Amino acid sequence: MRKLKTSRQPEILGAALAIADERGLDALSMRAVAERVGVTPMALYGYFRNKDELLDGLVGRLLTKLSPDDGGGDWEERLRAIAWATRRLAREHPSVFPLLLFRPSVTPDGVKVVDRLYQALIEAGVPDADVPRIERMLSTFVIGFAISEANGRFAAGSNETRTRRGAEAPAHQRLAGHLAASDWDAEFAADLADLMRIIRPV
Amino acid sequence: MRKLKTSRQPEILGAALAIADERGLDALSMRAVAERVGVTPMALYGYFRNKDELLDGLVGRLLTKLSPDDGGGDWEERLRAIAWATRRLAREHPSVFPLLLFRPSVTPDGVKVVDRLYQALIEAGVPDADVPRIERMLSTFVIGFAISEANGRFAAGSNETRTRRGAEAPAHQRLAGHLAASDWDAEFAADLADLMRIIRPV
DNA sequence: ACCTGAACACCGTTCAAGT
DNA sequence: ACCTGAACACCGTTCAAGT
Asked: What domain range is B35 assigned to?
């Protein structure tokens, strides 16, 4: 297992992130990254053992951007702040963001964010034994929401399409007036409010 | 826009699903599917316009398996039944399942599942205006949980790794005793119980 | 109506070599 | 210490042709 160079890792990750942001995850090839860095594809293998490790590095990079200011306020405000920052991150990097759901966040920055969430939950009065579970529940929801929104699962149009079918979808019929494309800012806020009500008297 | 043949679509999707289940999503190439069906790669393009449409077909196939029995019981039992069935689906098809989070479920079977969820929520007393939002919240959480569990975000080991760091992660220190790998069946059940409490007095 | 063959412009990665 | 060149075994997809 060769030892990796680190000198140009940040530069390489920056190039990779830029390509993914500009042209999508499919365009993110080792060859494209190499070209952008101004080097032969093979040179990258001195810094990352393979493409998968480069993607892990990209996840680490995203997590860095998630834990900036220590943030004052009570536990609820701090929880909310992290949730909104996460969603913002998904809008800035829609192609790379989904990787967060597939790789455990074991980087120092990832741990830092999780630790902040733990602290807030403890402060909220959640029993120690329940804190990790509630953290996973919250992060799963927030990441899932952000992916769904940014990648079209909540897409406009899907609801209208559904409404057409009558007999097979009676509830859709009844709810027809409420199936229009939603205001996702408001929906996210409402979901968070509901989740906060779980946390308080857990 | 050429009209597509439908005759062998199910056969092709079956082959594709088998490859993904056996060898992972990376191994799911048009060429591999063609070989399994016993045909030239190009023959597939008579049935699906491109690989992306084949993947959409695969999502549709998964959704079929999600709405079998009409299921008796009160709204809570029916909601729970769909949630557990979804999670079971993720364990059976871990490679393909994540696609559910990236593509709107506009197939007839997808609409059928959503309609069941709508009916249950209406019966639970959720105001019509909130039903679609609550459905999105639930499905986002359930799909997100199932992906996280099946794809290693909740991976064993990640928590132990975290605990090592001291000063930078005080809450991890305090929770050390509760960070061991969890019983995901129990955790999923507890999460669902919490979410049900949101639904009742929405 | 359904399928094939050859070709194009790509991939990730290994190995041996170069400064 | 860092990088390159050539090669291998793959990709998705188009186009023209074959039965």
From this structure: 9-49
